[in-house]
Design goal:
Layout lengths: L15 H9 L2 H7 L10 E5 L5 H9 L4 E6 L2 H10 L6 E5 L11 E7 L7 H12 L2 E12 L5 H17 L10 H7 L2 E9 L4 E8 L11
Parallel strand pairs: 1-2, 1-4, 2-3, 4-5
Antiparallel strand pairs: 5-7, 6-7
C-alpha cells in the first residue's frame, strides 16, 4: 500500500473553502477575521497553515504596511494564495511546515488558524516550541480553531470531520488536542477570546510573556 503524505490537502485544495462554507457558513471566516485589528500596522507576520489565502488577502487589505511570511504544506494551497493576492511583494510564500527555514529570524505576530487541530498532543509540543522560538518578546499569537465539543451534535460533527480528513488528507490527529492549555503552559498569556458557531470554534489572542534574561548592556 502506498504511503500517503501526512496532512496532505493538495487533493481538496480547490474545493476546501466551498466545503467549509457548506458546513459552517461564514463562521470560519468571521472567526479568523475577528482579532485582526490587534495586529500592529507595521508587523512582521508569520501565517502557518495559510490555506487558500482568504485570510492573507484580508490581512493585506487591513494592514497595508505589514510584511508577511505565508507557509503551507500544500503546493496547491500556496499557488491559490499567491494567485489570490496577485503575488504581492509584501508576502514571502513558502511551501512547508513551521520547521521550514524562515527568511527572517523573528516575527511580531504569528497566526495559526485551523492548524493546531491537525496534530497530536506530542507533535503540538514540538510545533509550539518551534514557533515560540521565532517570536520576539511581547509578540502576539493569534489562533482560531475547534475546541472540545460539549453538545452531542458537535461531537458527532467533529468525529465525522476527523474521519473525512483522515481519509482524504491523511491528517495526523484523530481528535482535538488541548491546544489552549499547551499554549498557556508554554508561557503565552491569554489576552482575549471569542467563541463562534455555538461555542465549537474559538478565536484567541495570546502574548509571549515568558521572562527572558536581560542583558545588562541593553538600555
Amino acid at each position: 500500500m502506498k504511503d500517503h503524505t501526512v496532512n496532505d490537502f493538495n487533493g481538496i485544495a480547490s474545493v476546501y473553502d466551498a466545503l467549509a462554507s457548506v458546513v459552517f457558513g461564514k463562521n470560519l471566516i468571521k472567526s479568523q477575521h475577528h482579532f485582526l485589528h490587534v495586529i500592529p500596522d507595521d508587523a512582521t507576520v508569520l501565517i502557518v497553515g495559510g490555506g487558500s489565502g482568504e485570510l492573507l488577502q484580508t490581512l493585506l487589505q487591513q494592514k497595508p504596511q505589514c510584511r508577511v511570511v505565508y507557509v503551507d504544506a500544500s503546493e496547491r494551497m500556496v499557488e491559490l494564495a499567491r494567485q489570490r493576492v496577485h503575488n504581492a511583494a509584501r508576502v514571502t510564500f513558502l511551501c512547508g511546515t513551521e520547521s521550514v527555514e524562515m527568511p527572517v529570524p523573528t516575527f511580531t505576530v504569528v497566526i495559526t488558524n485551523f492548524y493546531l487541530d491537525l496534530f497530536t498532543q506530542q507533535s503540538l509540543q514540538r510545533i509550539i516550541t518551534r514557533l515560540r522560538s521565532l517570536l520576539v518578546p511581547e509578540a502576539l499569537w493569534l489562533v482560531t480553531d475547534f475546541v472540545k465539543p460539549t453538545k452531542l451534535w458537535q461531537k458527532l460533527l467533529l468525529t465525522s470531520m476527523y474521519l473525512f480528513f483522515r481519509i482524504v488528507s491523511n491528517i495526523e490527529a484523530s481528535r482535538i488536542s488541548d491546544w489552549q492549555g499547551m499554549l498557556g503552559t508554554a508561557g503565552l498569556s491569554n489576552q482575549a477570546e471569542k467563541t463562534f458557531y455555538h461555542g465549537m470554534i474559538k478565536s484567541m489572542v495570546f502574548r509571549e510573556t515568558t521572562f527572558r534574561l536581560h542583558n545588562p548592556g541593553d538600555n
